[in-house]
């Protein structure tokens, strides 16, 4: 590489216009354009996110063919359930090592879009319904990855929460949910972890394509959040390339056909596009190439076995023990078990689409259970076909029921078939296949000791939850997911995974139910801020399992919290004690409420979390911080974040519906200066110390025939803009006098609430 950052401007000045235009798009499906004349190499950008999807030599031009083997770490749904940023940073670093070994410069991930509806076909690739979880864990993945000299691509920016019509749909959304729910996680990752690239999404936001939205790509991302990397398009997201350059879309992918390069050239020549805007995009591309080249190490390799072990650790940490009556779990190594269900033998371990990884190895739960218990203690029956073949299913079910009847305990592996969850289309329902539900009923009639183990990427309805003693949510565990399940079932790992997404009772209860996936090219985010648990809590809706829920084989007690406030936010110290007989991990969660808020808010929001590992009887103090920035709401009047003054309730607990202790704390809010205007209301003028005496006196002079008591009068007239009131013949106020007072009030700098 010949440039060197210091002479970047000089380097760009040496390029011809055609060369610059060529750098605005890639050279192929996954490479940037090289400029051999100047020594600028090409770099590789490839999927991601939970493994390296490096096309092998035989891959087709769409990148859909075979890819080289790589560790298939658990997809984001499972990583999100760990609530463990330290672990995710290690996974990120391992991904970085593998990417570097394969010559990949940018790994396309993580994906941190909010799980708005459980029907989104790609939820398995996203972390959570909550922006704090998505932001904290997304930042950890980026930090880990980039620590290896490989760039991340934070995606899909922004509001890409469904697959239906994803390349065109307009997300019609109000500013508060956009900022507070859908952008907040992105903001955190950008500010905390400085990803080298951000990938803009396919969709439109309030009518404008993300790929050509100057507000999104420049005002918010760069000017407000300080992003200094490169914006790459999602593959095929470009509608108008020239508008994209102007808006801040630096690199179009994939590339190779040259059409948009020619269009850029003509636009600059005709004066439609300012060459300096092109230079800006080129500068960022060259900078990225330079960063990547600096981190590259063609000699590097990675430890396949160690990465498999890390994949197993991460998958086990992501398993959520949803239910465990009468401590049916963990099993003893010496227990005899019936293992039923094809998923035990043929694991479903990742989702379909661009994130599909070609694993280095693949463990099945059946194989790993047999390794722990010994094959002699395990009887397996496939129980159903994955493609729901009616005739075969009948035979398989009766064989399975016979096996179940003879066993002391049944491990029943249920899940969604591959075709139910994929990039590119959404799910149609939240049900497990009918053949599997029928099988469960049949098994229960012969054996009540049934442990259901689930494999799927987005949540499913669990209508049988009251009828079985235990449910283990195994998600999609990546290549070592089978071992992770076995570890949890046999207590080799004490489960600590938590739901990063609520499991609802039924699809009709979900926040976006009436507004998903939209119609006529628009999807209206009518539920506003009330996404996930924010919705169920605001409506007091029963859920199957709440956000943050997950059991352990031990129990934990919480002390009363000690709470202090400083400029960073609210600090909460709480002692957590392991009150059971096994070592275990608690995920301590901090929720904050603002009961007297002047703006609409969910009843509580997650503002902090931490994991703590405790030996039996051990107690440790944990400090959680609700950052001041996270207490703020997006204020439409000042178009900025504002922290409200007054009391906040902090609650610590084990899930959003298992709060163990609360405390009340006063926070000093932000001073907001809203200038008074002639359109300000009578009530607003009564709140200002300069205008209040005159306006108050005028009110008192009003004819008591309108309303005898003054309080009532204020209510009646208070909402009236002052300009309207003074226009009434009976108004005792004079326009000039009011204009003068407003001028004086604004000049005095007194705060208007
Ligand atoms: C997906 C991205 C992916 C890209 C490259 C797109 O279809 O939305 O997530 O990184 O393809 O494969």
Question: What would you note in describing this structure?
Answer:
Helix content is 32%, strand content 19%. The strands form 8 sheets. It has a 6-stranded mixed beta sheet with strand order 10-16-15-14-11-13, with helices on both faces. Strands 1-3-4-6-9 form a 5-stranded parallel beta sheet. α11 crosses α16 (481-489) and α14 (390-405) packs parallel to α15.
Instruction: Summarize the amount of helix as a percent range.
Output: 25-40%
Radius of gyration: 29 Å
What is the domain tally? Answer: 4
- Bulk shape: globular
CATH architecture of the largest domain: Alpha-Beta Barrel
Model regions low in confidence, pLDDT < 50 over at least 5 residues: none
Instruction: Trace the largest sheet across and list its strands.
Output: 10-16-15-14-11-13
What about the largest sheet? 6 strands, mixed
Distance between the termini: 57 Å
Hetero groups = beta-D-glucopyranose
Structural class of the helix and strand makeup? alpha/beta
Fill in the keyword field for this structure.
about 750 residues; alpha/beta; TIM Barrel; Rossmann fold; Immunoglobulin-like; six-stranded mixed β-sheet; five-stranded parallel β-sheet; 23 helices; about 30% helix; binds beta-D-glucopyranose
């Amino acid at each position: 590489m010949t440039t060197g950052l210091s002479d970047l401007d000089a380097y760009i000045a040496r390029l011809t216009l055609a060369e610059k235009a060529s750098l605005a798009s890639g050279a192929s499906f996954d490479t940037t354009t090289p400029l051999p004349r100047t020594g600028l190499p090409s770099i590789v950008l490839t999927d991601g996110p939970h493994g390296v999807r490096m096309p092998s030599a035989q891959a087709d031009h769409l990148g859909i063919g075979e890819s080289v083997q790589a560790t298939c770490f658990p997809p984001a749904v499972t990583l999100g359930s760990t609530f463990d940023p330290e672990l995710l940073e290690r996974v990120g670093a391992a991904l970085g090592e593998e990417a570097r070994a394969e010559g990949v410069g940018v790994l396309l991930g993580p994906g941190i879009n909010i799980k708005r509806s459980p029907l989104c076909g790609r939820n398995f690739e996203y972390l959570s319904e909550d922006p704090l979880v998505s932001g904290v864990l997304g930042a950890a993945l980026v930090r880990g990855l980039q620590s290896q000299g490989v760039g991340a691509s934070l995606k899909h920016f922004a509001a890409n929460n469904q697959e239906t019509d994803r390349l065109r749909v307009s997300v019609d959304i109000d500013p508060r949910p956009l900022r507070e729910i859908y952008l907040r996680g992105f903001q955190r990752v950008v500010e905390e972890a400085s990803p080298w690239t951000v990938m803009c999404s396919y969709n439109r936001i309030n009518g404008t394509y993300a790929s050509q939205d100057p507000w999104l790509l420049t005002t918010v991302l760069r000017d407000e959040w300080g992003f200094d990397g490169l914006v790459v398009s999602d593959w095929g997201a470009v509608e108008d390339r020239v508008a994209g350059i102007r808006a801040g879309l630096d690199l179009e992918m994939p590339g190779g056909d040259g059409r948009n390069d020619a269009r850029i050239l003509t636009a600059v020549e005709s004066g439609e596009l300012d060459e300096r805007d092109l230079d800006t995009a080129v500068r960022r591309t060259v900078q990225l190439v330079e960063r990547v080249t600096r981190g590259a190490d063609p000699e590097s390799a990675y430890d396949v076995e160690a990465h498999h072990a890390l994949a197993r650790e991460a998958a086990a940490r992501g398993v959520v023990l949803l239910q465990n009556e009468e401590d049916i779990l963990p099993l003893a190594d010496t227990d005899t078990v019936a293992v039923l269900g094809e998923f035990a033998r043929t694991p479903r371990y990742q989702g379909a689409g661009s994130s599909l990884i070609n694993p280095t190895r693949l463990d099945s739960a059946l194989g790993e259970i047999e390794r722990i218990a010994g094959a002699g203690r395990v009887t397996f029956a496939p129980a159903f076909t994955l493609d729901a073949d009616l005739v075969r299913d009948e035979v398989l079910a009766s064989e399975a029921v016979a096996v179940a009847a003879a066993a002391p305990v049944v491990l029943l592996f249920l899940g969604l078939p591959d075709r139910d969850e994929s990039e590119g289309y959404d799910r149609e329902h939240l049900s497990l296949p009918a053949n599997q539900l029928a099988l469960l009923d049949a098994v229960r009639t012969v054996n009540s000791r049934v442990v259901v183990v689930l494999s799927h990427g987005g949540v499913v309805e669990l209508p049988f939850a009251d009828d079985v003693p235990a449910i283990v949510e195994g998600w999609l565990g990546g290549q070592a997911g089978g071992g992770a399940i076995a570890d949890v079932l046999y207590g080799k790992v004490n489960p600590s995974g938590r739901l990063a997404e609520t499991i609802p009772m039924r699809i009709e209860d979900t926040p976006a139910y009436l507004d998903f996936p939209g119609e006529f090219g628009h999807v209206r985010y009518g539920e506003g801020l009330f996404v996930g648990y924010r919705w169920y809590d605001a409506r007091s809706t029963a859920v199957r399992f709440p956000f943050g829920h997950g059991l352990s084989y031990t129990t934990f007690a919480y002390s009363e919290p000690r709470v202090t406030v400083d400029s960073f936010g609210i600090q909460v110290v709480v002692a957590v004690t392991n009150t059971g007989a096994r070592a275990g991990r608690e995920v301590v969660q901090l929720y904050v409420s603002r009961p007297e808020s002047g703006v609409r808010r969910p009843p509580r929001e997650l503002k902090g979390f931490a994991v703590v590992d405790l030996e039996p009887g051990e107690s440790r103090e944990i400090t959680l911080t609700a950052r001041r920035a996270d207490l703020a709401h997006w204020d439409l009047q000042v178009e900025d974040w504002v922290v409200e003054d007054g009391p906040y309730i902090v609650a610590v607990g084990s899930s959003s519906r298992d709060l163990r202790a609360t405390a009340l704390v006063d926070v000093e809010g932000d001073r907001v200066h809203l200038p008074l205007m002639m359109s300000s209301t009578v009530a607003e003028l009564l709140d200002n110390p300069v205008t209040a005496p005159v306006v108050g006196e005028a009110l008192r002079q009003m004819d008591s025939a309108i309303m005898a008591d003054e309080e009532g009068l204020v209510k009646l007239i208070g909402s009236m803009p002052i300009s309207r009131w003074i226009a009434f013949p009976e108004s005792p106020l004079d326009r000039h006098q009011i204009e003068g007072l407003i001028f004086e009030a604004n000049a005095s700098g007194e705060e208007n609430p």
